[in-house]
Amino acid sequence: MRLCSALILAALAGSAQAEEVFPARLAGHAHLPALTLIAPPDDAPRDLWVSGKFTGKARNDAPMTVMGTVGKDYGDHPTGISLPFIGQPVQGMSGFAMNRAGDGSIFTLTDNGFGTKANSPDAMLFFHRMTPDFATGTVTRHESVFLRDPDRKVPFRIANEGTASRYLTGADFDPESIQYLNGEIWIGDEFGPYVLRVALDGRVLDVFPTLLDGTVLRGPDTPGVTVPAVPGVDFRVQRSGGYEGMGLQPKTGLLWAMLEKPLLVEGGTEGDFLRVMTFDTAGKAWTGNSYKFKLSEGAKAIGDFNFIDDTRALVIERDNGEGDAARACAEGADKAACYPIPARVKNIVLVDTARVDADGYLHRIGHINLLDIADPQGKALPGTKPAEGPFTFPFFTIEDVMRVDETHILVANDNNLPFSGGREIGTAANNEFILLSVPELLSAK
Fold first, then answer.
1. Which of 219, 271, 392, 416 has the fewest CB within 10 Å, making it most exposed?
2. Residue 156: what are its φ and ψ, rounded to 5°?
3. Is the bond preceding 40 in cis, omega lying within 30 degrees of 0?
4. What gap in Å lies between CA 349 and CA 19, rounded to an integer?
5. Which residues sit opposite 235 in a β-bridge?
6. Using one digit for the tens of pLDDT, what is the confidence trace for 94-147?
7. 140 and 208 Cβ atoms separated by less than 8 Å
8. Which of 158, 151, 153 is nearest to 173 (CA)?
9. For 96-107, b where at least 16 C-beta lie within 10 A, e where not — what string?
10. Cβ atoms within 10 A of the Cβ of 12, count?
11. Residues 384, 76: Cα–Cα separation, whole Å
12. Phi/psi at 293 (nearest 5 deg)?
């Protein structure tokens, strides 16, 4: 009898913890082609007119001579696009701002370039204003603004320190999240991690290091951290584990800066949760408050974080998989025609920041599954829907989400040009923008 009671209690506890999964329907689909390149500003150093020269084992100045691949772990599939590039790639949409520009366009940004501090000194940093057109399936880029430091606000030596223009590159910062407030841009960086305050013309106005419990957080790429260094002791932020998401809370002016990966402690990580710290944009200081976001089973990181009202917000959580699970590699199969690590966890989670439990966890209300999107009206662009089953968004990094209206959200991927596929084996992923009808999710409390 006691055993039966225990089983019943365990079952009830499990059902109480189960999270509701809401439906998602495709309402629009557009893309910016993977190979979209733009010219640097006229006053940029000539070195920046060819980007990606340092992505191999040796410097390479010959444009378009080395084929990009998805990497050995992912089958080493070629992506059909070769490095280095003539110009700067627009690739890597890595965050949507909650507030739009006056003309209704969306602020988004390009990340550090080619994935690491070491291989991106010729990758310029910039943000954009863009508008997807779901009638034509295209995305218009209205403007791109390059980040620069003419007033020497950056507290360390930048790659272009000795130039007059002082443009920033992926050797300086890894910008992954963006917000627009009172005529200024706020950017969350992964390397510091830092929060940057930037003018609309791209000038850096302030650089704020991160404080947690009064202590500065650092990662292996933070200036001043030297090797050898002990993870969890000399630095606590994982590589590529800084601010992937940074929500702007309406009415308060608070930035809720969320780390992409769990913090390190000596011997491992502090748990399967992510830290969220709040920054007061008016006072230009950390509030001292911090919270926790619980990752679901199988999720390894987050991609973006944006509020939809005064307290509720959307968070993208993901695994490290790429590609349709229906084409997963069987044991011993030739990896050239399948996905060794397919996408299995790609969620948009709704949280309530006003509901925090005794351990500091933000309340998870529910989520949608980006690998199970209904498309009853056939909105998917040609060639993007699997032969069988629902429409999916099976990309390695999905880093953009925002509320559009009371029933719709906008989602986009970071295509890591030229190192990610996901949609088709042997083809670089485009920057896809999907409009999703999710009234049940957006109305959930």
1. 271
2. -140, 170
3. no
4. 10
5. 231
6. 999 999 999 999 999 999 999 999 999 999 999 999 999 999 999 999 999 999
7. no
8. 158
9. bbbeebeeebbb
10. 10
11. 21
12. -110, 120
For the sheet containing 312-318, what is the strand order? 20-22, 362-369, 346-356, 312-318, 301-307
> DSSP per residue over 179-192, as a string?
EEETTEEEEEESSS
Buried b (16+ CB within 10 A) or exposed e, 201-210: ebbbeebbeb
Find tokens 């080395």 and name the residue.
66
- The alpha carbon torsion through 173, 116, 120, 223 (nearest 10 deg) reads 40
The structure's pTM equals: 0.94
For the chain, domains (ranges, CATH) are 21-443 (2.115.10)
Residues 211 and 233: beta-carbon distance below 8 Å: no
Length reported for the chain: 445
- Residue bearing tokens 């969890």: 232
Residue 278, amino acid: T
Q: Read out DSSP for 21-79?
A: EE--EEEEEEEE-S--EEPPPTTS-GGGGEE-TTSSSS---STT-EEEE--GGGT--EE
Task: Give the torsion sign (CA, 207, 210, 214, 216).
Answer: negative
CB 441: neighbour CB atoms within 10 A?
24
